[in-house]
What does this fold into?
Amino acid sequence: MAFLHGLGMVCILLGIPFFVSGTIGLLRFPDIYTRLHALTKADNVGLGFVVLGLALQAEEWNTVARLLLIWLLVLIASSASCHLVARAALRRKIQPWTRP
It folds into this structure.
């Protein structure tokens, strides 16, 4: 049990850099399309590591199932919202950034 707890902590700690890199990408990238990409991809991977770490530490299977359901719903919601924001940007004719 101590091994699973330690492995779970490692997975949670592995997820943190993904959240940080997604936030940095949101703040630093030049246009809406690259910001959306950085935010959705990095946050989904980070959340995946956190959910895996918490699932390894869970004592019951129904807790693991709930965690996986939450992760699945976040994946669906983030991809749908990313698509809607990118589509709205395209409709407003916001051009992707190119090097000068």
